[in-house]
Write a structure and sequence with these properties.
By secondary structure, this protein is mainly beta. It is built from two helices and 25 strands. β18 (about 215) and β19 form a beta hairpin.
Length: about 325
């Protein structure tokens, strides 16, 4: 049975709350303490693999290390995030859908067959605001009906038939054959992009197999667009948007559950800034710095599946 946990994430005890389902699993032998920090008394010790009942709170100590409130043998106590992790045993992994809800902006003809490049949801309409009609695995063949819609962000959705039912699939997760043959250069690798942040934009693009650099207007001069990732910057990489499965950044990737992704980022040293029902905001601090150098936003669907991740450098 799912147990609702309301998180209170704090930096020096500053509280922000949201609601998720979770439990805490110990990753190596660790002390349980009476409060969120090393200054508090040891209540008990537990071995690796121990599953602890959540107790509705997460807090950061003066070192910005997060502690999970748990219940062990009927007693309230705290465990360090360095030696435990939030796990969602009641979560059921869902196939990936697509972007944030959009309003279709244009319609065009599209026929032929399509093959899915990832596990994906088929929806009643062109956007994740529509109901899921079915879910299909990578490599599934779909027959186009001859219709497609492009939303106001430029994401194309194809109308297809599956098991005799008309439905819609995102172009980000299919390849096409037929009259509509537009293609995007596929990524050749799935690197951890944190190692490329604020470094050569070209090197980052090479790492994910993107070669078509486009000149853009606005804050950045250049952009590389792929099915799963968008990279932008001037000479250095200053903006990342993960829009499909594959690449990770600070241990988080599209398709993870929102709290698992956040937990991965916390373990990489990022700090939670804000949580809402639609996204989690975290910030990264360079070693020894008191000011953040970049932000990371985790966007997720109503079932808690991360649908996109954006990283933005604060450097000019």
């Amino acid at each position: 049975m799912k147990k609702l946990i309301c998180l209170a994430v704090t930096l020096f005890m500053l509280s922000i709350s949201t609601c998720v389902y979770a439990q805490v699993t110990v990753t190596q032998e660790v002390n349980l303490r009476s409060g969120p920090g090393l200054k508090y008394d040891i209540v008990d010790s537990v071995p690796a693999g121990t599953v602890l009942q959540d107790n509705d709170s997460i807090m950061a100590d003066e070192r910005s290390v997060y502690w999970y409130a748990v219940i062990y043998k009927g007693q309230s106590c705290w465990v360090s995030s360095k030696f435990s992790e939030i796990t969602g045993s009641d979560y059921e992994a869902q196939p990936l859908s697509d972007d944030t809800p959009e309003t279709p902006a244009s319609t065009e003809s599209s026929s032929g067959s399509f093959t899915t490049t990832a596990d994906v949801n088929l929806r009643e309409g062109p956007g994740i605001s529509y109901d899921i009609l079915s879910s299909v695995k990578t490599g599934t063949s779909l027959k186009g009906t001859g219709s497609s819609q492009t939303d106001d962000r430029g994401v194309k959705w194809y109308q297809v038939t599956y098991n005799g039912t008309k439905c819609w699939v995102s172009s980000k997760f299919v390849t096409s054959k037929g009259t509509d043959t537009a293609s995007v250069t596929p990524s050749s690798g799935d690197p951890e992009l944190a190692s490329y942040c604020n470094k050569s934009l070209k090197n980052a693009a090479d790492a994910v197999g993107l070669s078509n650099r486009e000149t853009v207007s606005g804050e950045y001069s250049y952009a590389y667009y792929g099915k799963r990732v968008i990279l932008m910057g001037n000479s250095n990489l200053s903006y990342i948007e993960l829009i499909g499965p594959g690449c990770t950044i600070y241990g988080a990737k599209v398709g993870m559950k929102h709290f698992d992704a956040a937990n991965a980022c916390l373990k990489k040293g990022l700090r939670m800034v804000n949580l809402s029902s639609e996204n989690f905001l975290l910030e990264h601090y360079a070693s020894g710095s008191s000011s953040p150098d970049s932000s990371l936003l985790l966007y997720f669907d109503t079932d808690g599946t991360v649908t996109s991740i954006t990283w933005n450098s604060y450097s000019s």
